[in-house]
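Q: How would the structure tokens look for this protein?
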Amino acid sequence: MKELKRSIFQLFLGAEIIVVTFLYLVGSGGLLSVKTAYRQNTALLG
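A: Here is the predicted structure in token form.
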């Protein structure tokens, strides 16, 4: 049971690292495009 928990924990940790890396890569370029899109939308609505 302890071994299973440990392997799940390691799997979760690995997945978390992948997600964080992915978000970081997307965030460098993606966040800017999201911000500009948000500004354009608010400009259209406001």
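The chain has a mean pLDDT of 81.

The first helix runs from residue 2 to 45.

Upvote if useful.
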